Amino acid sequence: MASIETAAEHERILREIESTDTNCIGPTLRSVYDGQEHGLFMEKLDVRIRNHDREIEKMCNHHFQGFVDSITELLKVRGEAQKLKSQVTETNRRLQDDGKELINSMEELKQCRVQQRNIATTIDKLTHCLPVLEMYSRLQEQMRAKRYYPALRTLEQLEQTCLPRAGQYRFCSIMAENIPKLRTQIRDTAMTQLRDFLESIRKHSDKIGETAIKQAQLQRSLDSSISMQPRALIGRRGRKLVAAAMTGMDSDGQGGSPVSEQDSGILDVEDEDEDDEVPGAQDLVDFSPVYRCLHIYTVLGLRDVFENYYRKQRRKQARLVLQPHSNMHETLEGYRRYFNQIVGFFVVEDHVLHTTQGLVNRAYVEELWELALSKIVAALRTHSSYCDDPNLVLDLKNLIVLFADTLQGYGFPVSQLFDMLLEMRDQYGEILLKKWNITFRQVLDQDNYSPIPVSTEQEYRHYTSQFPLQDPELEKLPFPKKLPFSEFVPKVYCQLKEFIYACLKYSEDLHLSSTEVDDMIRKSTNLLLTRTLSHCLQYAIKKKNVGLAELVQVIINTTHLEQSCHFLEEFISNITNVPPDTVNATKLYGTSTFKDARHAAEAEIYTSLNAKIDQFLQLADYDWLAAVQGGGTLTASDYLIDLIAFLKSTFSVFTNLPLLELFTQWDWSTYLADYGKPTCKYLRVNPHTALALLEKMRETSRKNNVFAQFRKMDRDRQKLIDTVIKQLRNLIAQHHT
Fold first, then answer.
1. Residue span of the structural domain in which 24 resides
2. Which long-range contacts (CB under 8 A, 24 or more apart) does 628-633 make?
3. Residue 241 domain-assigned?
4. Which of 26, 212, 402, 512 is deepest in the core (most CB within 10 A)?
């Protein structure tokens, strides 16, 4: 079976050798040598060759006679051919001799035509090549001068117009090969300059922001004085933006300022203006790297790549700028540097927005600002909470207002910042309360709780300028004289006014109405009165070793402070321009504060007095019967005599209380007429208590002097007491029915 297949394969190979061109017979023969039956194939090949030889021999025998006949005819023709050759040779010799001159003329004409054609071709090629060389030379100059945008335009014209016209020359091929490299070089160089610019504005955003804030501050001062000196005024920023828009691009299409090769992005601006105007951001920053790179990438068809890269890098820088330092809250300079960097960042973005077409759009800037605003508010809330210095909080508030006004001037919404300032107002108020708590305690600790002696008119005016004292009787007294209150009163009153001024300072520039400012000040003042000052007064009353004379002076002091509350109302109304009788206006709680303090002092007097009496009574076991002396006379106990002496000296101190003028000056007509009114002079005198005291006085008077009814003055006094008692009973009946 294998031999049959081998024979068939050999037969196929032989047919292929017979039918295949000899140039392609190699693969066929290789298949023979690759096989294992080489000898058998050679035998078949020999057999096939012998067969072909026999066929050739038969063919030759068949055509031999015709071949012989043909040879015979050729021999006959050879003689004739020799004759013809001789004739042709002779003819050719004569023709060559006759055409030599014509050939020479034709050769000369041919050379002239070739030269003419070469000259025309050369002129044509030079016409197309010279612009290429000139343009390439211009390209090299532009590259050396770093004028990349016009260089890119030259490359585009060279590639699309000049090189196709020039043809296939080696120098053109070299130029064509260099064009992508030059484009890449321009693109990379422009990107390098952009990176340098971004890094530079990141480092100098502090300076840019500081300049913008100064400009806003200058504009604010101009706005405040414009009513006094009206004149046509165009801000530097407006002028510069108009100038930038009018300038456009240079003659080569290059955008940017005249100093466009200062690719660092920051210019060294000197104060060369005569009016010393604050330079704007466009004066400090050379934006030409941005414009140049934008134009280059636009020409290269990579504008989207450039926009995405620019926005991505600026977002990264925004995150860095918005990250405050951990110790920012320690000094105002830390906040100032933080705000300057943020303002610098957004001033640059605003300028890019208005001077480029689509590099950044309004939506992108607003998105960045929303992100920044949330982070700014969060950072300020965190860091301001660490502050316990009211002056620093006030300076921070002014700085935030200036920061907000600056960015608002560039079209950024800043309402959240002002809302946060209103939140900080409560924190500022708490810090003020803590500070005034210390101040009030120092005033109370340093007070001598004695009426103020004044020996000259100048001293008297000094104290009355600090506190609104209105006492015509006191003014009539000659010098030296004493003011009824101690140093505590004018000092506290002045501190109350200082607190109001401090609250007013915070409300400035917050775009609040006069009513809102007035309400804020009154609420803060009420907190100061009801919480801080009230606690301090309670502290002064309740502390150890407070004498009765000091408590009495506290009552006198609080009485005068209570009387001065309406002056504080007027003071607040004057500085806020809001009438005190305005509907829904907050009223001061000073009257109740001082009344409560006075009530606490009175209660402390009662407690102290009772405790002192108890101490006297507990010193020894009293013999309530009078002691008998040697002569048989009765004498009072020494302990009771000391107690009565103590009470006399104590009650002499009470004579200074206006609580007591009702009895000492017998001012019952005023009490009865003003009872129940908020401005009543004896508002804290309870009619039941007064009635009990009068009845006690009447009984005591009757017991001590049985002959009083025989003296007219005593009878009149008794009648007067009876009359007042009757009026008091009627008053009690009227107000309790």
1. 6-63
2. none
3. no
4. 212
Q: Give pTM, 2 decimals.
A: 0.65
How many other β-carbons are positioned within 10 Å of the β-carbon of residue 446? Answer: 10
Burial of 513 (0-12, 13-18, 19+ CB in 10 A): exposed
Q: Are residues 442 and 396 located together in one domain of the fold?
A: no
Mean pLDDT in the chain? 79
The count of residues in the chain is 737
What is d(CA 372, CA 410) in angstroms, rounded to the nearest whole number? 15
d(CA 359, CA 551): 76
Cis peptide before 413 (omega within 30 of 0): no
Indicate whether 325 and 401 sit together in one domain: yes
Q: Are residues 503 and 389 in the same domain?
A: no
Number of structural domains found in the chain: 4
Residue 407 sits in the same domain as residue 309: yes
Q: Work out the pLDDT band at 650, boundaries 50, 70, 90.
A: low
Positive or negative CA dihedral for 262, 263, 264, 265? positive
Quote the CA–CA distance of 607 and 89 in Å, as a whole number.
169
Give the tokens for residue 269.
Answer: 């601006």
> Are 414 and 407 contacting, i.e. CB atoms less than 8 angstroms apart?
yes
Strand partners for 453: 482
Helix (H) or strand (E) holding 475: helix 472-476
Identify whether 146 is part of a domain. no
Q: Are 698 and 604 in a shared domain?
A: no
Cα-based torsion angle of the residue sequence 179, 183, 185, 189 in order, rounded to the nearest 10 degrees:
150
Same-domain pairing of 443 and 552: yes
Q: Which residues pair with 266 in a beta bridge?
A: 285
Residues 155 and 265 sit within 8 Å (Cβ to Cβ) = no
Q: Examine the fold and report which residue of 37, 63, 89 is the final residue of a domain before the chain moves on.
A: 63
Q: What is the pLDDT of residues 533-551, one digit of tens each?
A: 889 988 888 887 777 788 8
Inside any domain, residue 95: no
